[in-house]
Design goal:
Strand content: 35-45%
Number of helices: 2
Structural class: mainly beta
Order of helices and strands: HEHEEEEEEEEEEEEEEEE
Shape: flat
Radius of gyration: 18 Å
Distance between the termini: 22 Å
Largest sheet: 5 strands, mixed
């Protein structure tokens, strides 16, 4: 589950790209119950959930989602933390002491003062963050999405989608023949998390505001105890649309391994 999952589509299938990310939301209308995750309440402790770092740390995952940007180096507080990160790649979860960090993203081989992104991030104790470089290189920015890692009820998984494709339109997602469950999700927004029973779900994808079926999607499996952040990245114009699925556990092994 730790690998990056990519699915490439033609421009005609751009709605399918985002649909692949959203299939689980359809279960809200299923006979099985589904509930929104309590984003404003308990979001879990990332050290315990992911099994990394030390008590009081924060957790961060950095994603290169800028479709026309070159490979990049990432500097944290002036020190190179990641090197030669390609589009569609992500760092994996890293634990850092909670606090304020100066993050710079520069083309590979350049110094931090050549950064195309220069941002200050405040990381809270126990919190987990997806930090994504999004947009085309002429308008690139860092988007921060906090991750809800509270432990779900037995047999439940959780999923949200992040629309990180700068030229893809918004879409609605529905059960086959049913009402829209997710409406008008647009760049660079993230949907709410939805907790769903682990299993397989079917849905259809429609251009926002229509009943036209652009694509039927058969069942796809989600595992219990997992949280899925699903990024739609790439561009329609050059047919580079990609689905990037980043699964995170809410139930780490009992013995956590401290981060290096």
């Amino acid at each position: 589950m730790s690998r990056m999952i990519r699915v490439f589509f033609s421009s005609v299938g751009l709605v399918a790209t985002i649909a692949m990310s959203l299939f689980l939301f359809a279960s809200q209308a299923n006979a099985q119950s589904a509930t929104a995750s309590p984003m404003a309440a308990d979001m879990g402790d990332c050290v315990h959930a992911l099994g990394i770092g030390n008590e009081g740390d924060a957790c961060i995952n950095i994603i290169h989602a800028s479709p026309d940007a070159p490979n990049v180096d990432v500097y944290v507080n002036g020190e190179k933390a990641l090197e030669n990160v390609a589009f569609g790649a992500f760092s994996g979860w890293m634990a850092l002491p909670a606090g304020e960090y100066h993050v710079q993203v520069a083309p590979t081989g350049e110094m931090a003062d050549a950064a195309v992104i220069d941002a200050t991030l405040t990381l809270e104790s126990g919190a987990a963050y997806q930090v994504a470089a999004v947009g085309t290189v002429d308008s690139i920015t860092a988007q921060v999405y906090r991750v809800d890692l509270h432990q779900r009820a037995d047999g439940m998984a959780s999923v949200r989608v992040i629309h990180a494709s700068p030229d893809a339109p918004a879409v609605d997602i529905a059960l086959q023949g049913g009402d829209a469950l997710i409406s008008n999700l647009a760049f660079p927004d993230a949907s709410d998390y939805l907790d769903v029973p682990a299993g397989s779900y079917d849905l259809e994808v429609r251009p926002t505001g229509t009943m036209d079926v652009a694509l039927d999607l058969p069942g796809v499996e989600l595992e219990a105890g997992m949280v899925y952040d699903v990024f739609a990245i790439g561009q329609v114009a050059d047919e580079s649309l990609t689905v990037l699925v980043i699964p995170s556990t809410t139930m780490a092994p009992d013995m956590a391994t401290p981060a290096a």
